[in-house]
Design goal:
The chain is an alpha/beta fold. The chain has twelve helices and twelve strands. It binds iron/sulfur cluster.
Length: 351
Amino acid sequence: MSSQEGSLLRHDWTRDQVLSLFNQPFNDLLFDAQVMHRQHFDPNQVQLSTLLSIKTGACPEDCKYCPQSARYDTGLEKEKLLQIEQVIEAAKIAKASGSSRFCMGAAWRSPHDRDIPAVAEMIREVKSLGLETCMTLGMLSEAQSDKLADAGLDYYNHNLDTSKEFYGEVITTRTYQDRLNTLANVRNSGMKVCAGGIVGMGEEQQDRAGLLMELANLPVHPESVPINMLVKVAGTPMADQANLDPFEFIRTIAVARLMMPKSYVRLSAGREDMNEQMQAMAFMAGANSIFYCDKLLTTPNPKANTDMQLLERLGIAPEEYQADKDSRQQEDDLHRAINEHKNDALFYRAS
Ligand code: SF4
């Protein structure tokens, strides 16, 4: 990476700076985001991830958007941790349908230590199929994080959800700092970080700016940044939330692209409710990753073949998983970040 590119990886954003990006004329913002995107990625490729719920429902947390919380009656059928054979089968199907990354999600506050051997086996088996692996299991201790990394987990997903200020409106059973601590544990264990948030929960633009500011000001940008549009599920406290202006959603993607130029920005939940034009505009704004499966944990997602048809019509190809290139790049980035932050608290351990 040239020094010019290095200077683009900023970690010192102020909210006013982020808001001024948001408030540019729409065409200027999209143009800048697309130019930035082209400096770091093939603009005609998207990374495809498949997400499987490996343990569904009965979560003790109170995330107000989530049908898996035990506190809300959403009619969701609970499922215990899947058997390893079921996970392998799903991973094989995902690979055959073109996915390069297989994400496994469990509705836990945090895993019990007794669950770790089973999820570690899932990681090893899915990796042996030639897929990148990602898990989202709730909060992780340092020791749990190290064990998942030892099993070969590539990515750990843990979203910040929203700004620090709005966070209390969304969840009360864990703190923002808890989330940052898990991200720190994941980074310290040497795994890649997948962290983003949800928009359309009733937050203000300054909260969307605050979320992106928190993510971009982490010592190392998350390699993967999912931007979710709230899926309003009946029975959750956010079921009747007003719709977010679609252009504001596209602006959020574009600003994420500008602030975290080398990260994969993922068009995540809520795609089922987006028409093709809006999805195409999201790609124009710099989104270059999608979830590609019939279901996102428990909510519907566009059918895989519909996605393929859209990508084909747009001349966009699925990105292939290049394990060696990815891990070399990750190592380089991490070493560079460590050198840049020698005197800082690089790993933002919790106070
Ligand atoms: S988002 Fe995760 S932690 Fe929150 S209620 Fe749903 S499953 Fe539990």
